[in-house]
Amino acid sequence: MSFDALSVKAQFPIFHRYPDLVYLDSAATSQKPASVIKVLSDFYSFENANIHRGVYDLSAKATDKYEEVREKLAAAFNANANDFAYCSGTTEGINLVVNGYLLPHLEKGDEVLITAMEHHANLIPWQQACEKKGAKLSIIPVKPSGEIDMEAFENKLSKKTKMLAMVHISNTLGTINPVKILTQKAHDLGVPVLLDAAQSAGHLPLDLQDLQVDFAVFSAHKLFGPTGIGALYCSENFKDQLKASKFGGGSIKEVSFEKTSWMAFPHGLEAGTPHIAGVVGMGAALDFIATLDLEESFAHEHALVTQLRQELDALGGIKIFGNPSEYAGIVSFEVDGVHPHDVASFLSEADIAVRAGHHCTQPLLERMQVPATTRASFSIYNTEKDVERLVATLKDLKEFWE
Amino acid sequence: MKSLYGDLIKQHQKNPYHFLKKEDVELSLRANNPICGDRYDLYIENEENVLSTLHFHGFGCALSKASASIMVETLEGKSYEEAKEICQNFLDYIHDKTNGEVYTEAFKAFEALHTQTARIDCVALTWKEMLSFLQTQSS
Questions:
Q1: Which of A216, A292, B21, B88 sees the fewest Cβ atoms within 10 Å?
Q2: CATH no. for residue A20?
Q3: Which residues of chain B fall short of a pLDDT of 70?
Q4: Which helix (H) or strand (E) holds A330?
């Protein structure tokens, strides 16, 4: 494999500060490369000004930098620059679509279709909208393998469906969903599709033109960028139908005491002073990703998680949740007789960072009849040594608890 | 290392004190952590403002279970007033606010929380529930 994880890892200051850290919680948030941190620091140090309408030089430059990042998003995800609105992250992006597109179109008796493996962020906003309008939230079941039940999906999809919302990569199971196939079938019935790309953007080549989804959302902090910023992609067909649901300055064409008219997508959705430095930092993260070959880096993460899945199996007394045929660098497991929080604490004492809990997918865990799991998730800076350390410490843990 | 899981905690986790579902007991409290799903019921048999017999049952991590077990063992037979002070001492101790003063040496099993604060909620769960019950009982 030509991917050089160690030279990638060297670009992340946190591993210089904590050389023994085995960071296996990138699905929660990725670490940040020096280049991103420097751009953030430089922006606040030397380039800071509010954007739009500032006539002076600093403001004009800040505006250019802010707007330029749309071009970087377009290049990274194969779309057009004006297809992307900035938002605080995946959660806000979904809320913008629910409030700005779905609610005005949703009526009593309609349905919204999601999968059983959605993160709470891609469940609760739809659930609340359905409750408000007397519509039904319909759930595509997940098979024990951790894959979507395609037969059930086809049965549940109908002309009553007003939206199909699904996660690209499950943050709990690691499953990669067949987005293109589901989208095609939804579109055959005229159903729009929203993709939660929080775990896929930056991890694998994400081609929005190829997937043909209508909306897509992700957070910068999971792709080496700052927290509090992300993007909402909206395809050309839906831009006029996606109304502003957050109101304030910066997003309007004309205001009187009687009425307001809004700017077109994306600016109409970006009311208030946005997270300018965050957007610029997201641009730096996209520049960083552009230096990677995502096919190679994905293969690296996939190889590590495959190794871990095999070694956990071999260890015995460990249950892995789901064994999908297509998976990314995320795996959830349970150690017999040891609560996930105790597993995570024990690992923490050995400098290994994993996550324990329901991973904001409580209904999924309920279906798997487990209150919580331990989750290890990989990124480009992980190495085989990390897997070895995790497995060796789990061995110690099993002995300790026997 | 392994400082969070000393012998006393392992003992209580494996053989918890009065770990029994006592559905016939009228007074019970539910200690619930929605973030992690830990959930215990505390069964209180009382006589004239004394916690005469205590049981607990439920599920959660080793730390929450051991801590609940130590609480039940420590508070049994204590008056409401005494129990309130003991709960307060325990909660203050795990937050490192008592200069190391403890009602009973058993509390020192949780000393690691002074530097590893991530698990304080697990350990405090049943104690906080008990304390807030006792506070509603004060004369």
A1: B21
A2: 3.90.1150.10
A3: 1-2, 138-139
A4: strand A330-335
Q: Which two tokens stand for residue A217?
A: 């959302």
Q: Residue A266, preceding bond cis, omega within 30 degrees?
A: yes
Contact B118 A372 (CB under 8 A): no
B28 forms bridges with which residues in the sheet?
B43
Looking up residue A99, the CATH number of its domain turns out to be: 3.40.640.10
Is position A341 within any domain? yes
Q: What is the CATH number of the domain that holds B89?
A: 3.90.1010.10
Residue A384: predicted pLDDT: 97
Q: Do A341 and B36 touch (CB under 8 A)?
A: yes
CA dist., res. A321 & res. A318, Å (int) = 10
pLDDT value at position A234?
A: 98
Please give the structure tokens belonging to residue A171: 């943050």
* Backbone phi and psi for residue A233, each to the nearest 5 degrees, phi listed first: -95, 135
Q: Which domain holds residue A54?
A: 37-290
Inside any domain, residue A29: no
Mutation for testing the A interface, residue in B11, B36, B39, B120 having most A CBs under 10 Å:
B36
Residue with tokens 């993260």: A285
Question: Is residue A153's pLDDT more than 70?
Answer: yes
For the segment A83-140, what is each residue's pLDDT rounded down to a tens digit? Answer: 999 999 999 999 999 999 999 999 999 999 999 999 999 999 999 999 999 999 999 9
Residue B84 within a domain: yes
For residue A375, list its beta bridge partners: A332, A355
- Are residues A328 and A169 in contact, defined by beta-carbon separation less than 8 angstroms? yes
How confident is the model at residue B118, as a pLDDT? Answer: 87
Give the model's pLDDT for residue B76: 97
Residues 304-363 on A with a CB inside 8 Å of B are 338-342, 345-346, 348-350, 356-358
Residue B61 to residue A340, Cβ atoms within 8 A: yes
Where in the sequence is the domain holding B51, given as residue range(s)?
7-137
